[in-house]
Sequence to fold (311 residues):
Amino acid sequence: MDLDPDEVAVGDELPTYSRPGSVLAWARYGAVNPVHIVGHHFEDEVARREGFDAAFIPAPLEHAYLHTMLRNWMGRSGRVLSLDIRLRRPLIRGRTLTAGGTVTALRRHGDAVSVSLDLWERDDLGELLAPGRAEVELRR
Amino acid sequence: MITEEMRALVGTAMDEQTSYPIAASDIRRWALAVYHPDRPPPEFWDEDDPVTIAAGGLVAPDEFNPLAWTAQDPRPRFSDPGLPVAKVGAFEAALGVEPPAFRAVLQGEIRARYGVVRMRPGDVIHSVSSISEYFEREGRMGLQLYTTISEVLTNQDGEWVKTIDTVFVRY
Fold:
């Protein structure tokens, strides 16, 4: 279902998107983007030497999950113009990531609507993993 | 941690790569890996979907990396077998400058800007990377060196596809 740009309003919350912190998911991502087949994503001991509790998610996969959440929300009526993410804490193996967002501004111009969003990713302990921002364009 | 020699590298192209033509299966595999266990949108895998056809065929997700496995002109990764394999995060080595000592490198921030042109099967993507900024900050791991790598991707027609700024943290 494509999003109707005329029904979007400031303050709208996006449907959340969740993914498990699983090395199986990270292995699938490593298979298509192998520069991220790195010890700290798969071996707890390597991650601990770097100061973390256990193996953790590849950062670009966190970024990709936000793209997926936006696409799920927009459908084919929209496209991403920009997407920034600050990686405060990584998703640790065994935890669950949930992503969400809020519409913060709208600019209507012709058949298009530019939408600004604040984004976030948290784990199931409530820790803020990554705040972000995005600009998308919706078309009627 | 930041030396004058390092500052002099800012803005200099440190890596250029040209992809092989993107294959439809590259896009399908990427989408399946990221969306698993969900089914990706049809524009990433179903050439026969009516909306995909209307949109001109398959497209790649914005975040797709067309240079993931290798490149036609892979510099410097495999260019000189006489050079030692560069340590991940030792960016300066590509420009002949000794990198600072560090025990770990992480990505601290990713900023992506996308053009109107999408990546599609058959596209040949050219990538140019450079160091665009250095700064230092105290963090929970002690003094940390932040290095922004800017990668600009264009297609075979010279059209801008996207720019990815990645802030790496070394400590």
Strands of chain A lie at 17-20, 78-86, 96-109, 112-123, 128-139. Chain A is about 25% helix and 35% strand.
